[in-house]
């Protein structure tokens, strides 16, 4: 369950995941109001306890952001889960529009020209992996219709994961 | 609950965001996925082609929104669930509007910090001076 450092990286990996499993992957966006400064009774109690032990805790809490936005791409079939979190209001608009880009992939619409970079990367990564995985995927894809959607997708994912150092974070979470 | 039309959905979403404004707890969860339920996919003519990966026509997207309430709140009818189906041709327009609604709705996020930017600018000029020197 990795959190990515940058939204670009999250977007790239999410695009790959959706490409591999367009039918099952979902994207959840959670806007969570956190009560760091607020009036919740539990927190007030806790803060009072803290204050009784250390007297200087009140000042830093005042400046903390009061909400966070978490983007999560999750595929229940493979258990892959990619996350990105931010607290900056300036990012919201861009992030939602990138959800739109990913939505295009989900809808299987032809991609706009500017997202070609991701596609090119994906292609390069697949080329860079040993041919065994890919040929396995293709071969088993031809065998049984029922299993066909799963096995080649697995191959693709492995290919994506093996392509770069970042892939390590992404895979093998069941 | 059957999906709302896109316009109704936005109206309710704005309401939902407004209901959390000024509050210091709670969540709003937005989800999107391909609508594959009840979508007729033809039998693949060629077995090596996977219908999921290469559908013959674009599929709609299902958008769901909840206020993440459960248990007691669900019993008290406090749980709000909205959903809408976005047709492929409507996607770009939908997401532009969606982005606007979210930007306005997510008001508790940290605003752009101007004092910090000034600080950075100062640092930069210092760094620049250091490199040129």
Search tags:
heterodimer, A: 174 residues, alpha+beta, Signal recognition particle alu RNA binding heterodimer, srp9/1, three-stranded antiparallel beta sheet, 52% helix, elongated, B: 133 residues, 4 helices, 3 strands, 40% helix, 16% strand
The CATH architecture of chain B can be given as: 2-Layer Sandwich
State the fourth-level CATH superfamily of chain A: Signal recognition particle alu RNA binding heterodimer, srp9/1
CATH topology of chain B: Signal recognition particle alu RNA binding heterodimer, srp9/1
Total count of domains of chain A = 1
User: How much helix, percentage-wise, in residues of chain B?
Assistant: 25-40%
Count the helices of chain B. How many? 4
Strand order of the largest sheet of chain A: 1-2-3
Range of helix content of chain A:
40-55%
The beta-strand count of chain B equals 3
In short:
Chain A: GO terms for molecular function: 7S RNA binding. The complex is a heterodimer of chains A (174) and B (133). Chain A is an alpha+beta fold and 174 residues long.
What does this protein look like?
- The complex is a heterodimer of chains A (174) and B (133).
- Helix content of chain A is 52%, strand content 14%.
- Chain A is of the alpha+beta class and 174 residues long.
- Chain A has a single domain, classed as Signal recognition particle alu RNA binding heterodimer, srp9/1.
- A 3-stranded antiparallel sheet of chain A has the order 1-2-3, with helices on one face.
- In chain A, helix 5 packs across helix 7.
- Chain A is elongated, with a radius of gyration of 21 Å.
- Chain A starts with 6 loop residues before the first helix and ends with a helix.
- Residues 56-63 and 119-170 of chain A have low confidence and may be disordered.
- With 133 residues, chain B is α+β, with helices and mostly antiparallel strands.
- Chain B has one domain (6-132): Signal recognition particle alu RNA binding heterodimer, srp9/1, CATH 3.30.720.10.
- Chain B contains 4 helices and 3 strands; from the N terminus they run αββαβαα.
- Chain B has helices at residues 6-20, 72-75, 91-105, 114-132, and strands spanning 26-34, 61-66, 81-86.
- In chain B, helix 1 (6-20) packs parallel to helix 3 (91-105).
- The radius of gyration of chain B is 23 Å and the shape is extended.
- The termini of chain B are far apart.
- The model of chain B has no long low-confidence stretch (mean pLDDT 81).
- At the A-B interface, strand 1, strand 2, helix 4 and helix 6 of A face strand 1 and helix 3 of B.
